[in-house]
């Protein structure tokens, strides 16, 4: 079992798009037993693929041990992909983690699901917080969407520096350019500077995800962005397997 965190210090970089499409690829292309765990109180991933429209306000209770983690697992609209949905109760999760002072609470919960899943994808809230500390300790790979702009690239650098300053070992980072528009000089320059980074384009097909409430592979599998996400998933799998 491996845990992939989709994380960024900065918001608005496409984390939910990445999490949904990577989870779809895991379940559909690789046929992995996959769980998408939405940790962002905005609950965008949950809204896109949840089969349960009731607001339970119980996502926080998993961590305080008031609710057993398996009780909140639900099937998603994607065959083979399960979901732990987010809700507004997660807004106080940082406070709970500070009070508990248990740095590996999320890691231990994930470990308890190891017999049930091959891949767990974490859709993480932005920022360097108590929650991100938990995520960075639990992940086997950290996928960081980066818009090809100085501010977004600086945010990625801050995460890398933070991991170094923490000391000890940490999960490898996989930066991926997000929302790429090759018509823009700034974007082309960024891609030239980091030719080894994967890139996901800005595309109207991606915007259609919120209208159709489906991953790209479910309604536009032949589109360039869907193919790019499939290629990105192949890269993720190779990195997890050490190839």
Automatic annotation (TrEMBL):
Gene3D superfamilies per UniProt: P-loop containing nucleotide triphosphate hydrolases
Pfam family, one: AAA_31
Domain AAA, residue spans: 2-157
Protein name, as recorded: ATPase, ParA family protein
Source organism of the structure: Sphingobium indicum BiD32
Source taxonomy: Bacteria, Pseudomonadati, Pseudomonadota, Alphaproteobacteria, Sphingomonadales
């Amino acid at each position: 079992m491996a845990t992939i965190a989709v994380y960024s210090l900065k918001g608005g970089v496409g984390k939910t798009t990445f999490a949904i499409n990577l989870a779809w690829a895991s379940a559909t292309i690789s046929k992995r037993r996959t769980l998408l765990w939405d940790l962002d109180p905005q609950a965008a991933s949950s809204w896109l693929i949840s089969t349960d429209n009731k607001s339970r306000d119980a996502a926080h209770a998993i961590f305080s041990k008031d609710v057993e983690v398996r009780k909140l697992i639900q099937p998603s609209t994607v065959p083979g992909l399960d979901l732990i949905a987010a809700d507004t109760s997660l807004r106080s999760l940082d406070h709970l983690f500070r009070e508990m002072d248990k740095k590996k609470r999320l890691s231990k919960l994930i470990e308890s699901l190891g017999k049930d899943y091959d891949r767990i994808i974490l859709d993480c809230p932005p920022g360097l917080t108590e929650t991100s500390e938990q995520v960075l300790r639990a992940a086997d790979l950290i996928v960081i969407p980066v818009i090809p702009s100085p501010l977004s690239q600086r945010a990625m650098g801050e995460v890398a520096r933070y991991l170094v300053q923490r000391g000890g070992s940490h999960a490898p980072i996989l930066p991926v350019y997000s929302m790429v528009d090759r018509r823009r000089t700034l974007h082309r320059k960024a891609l030239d500077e980091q030719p080894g980074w994967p890139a996901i384009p800005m595309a109207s097909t991606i915007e259609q995800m919120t209208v159709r409430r489906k991953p790209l592979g479910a309604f536009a599998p032949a589109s360039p962005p869907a193919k790019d996400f499939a290629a990105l998933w192949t890269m993720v799998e190779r990195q997890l397997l050490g190839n």
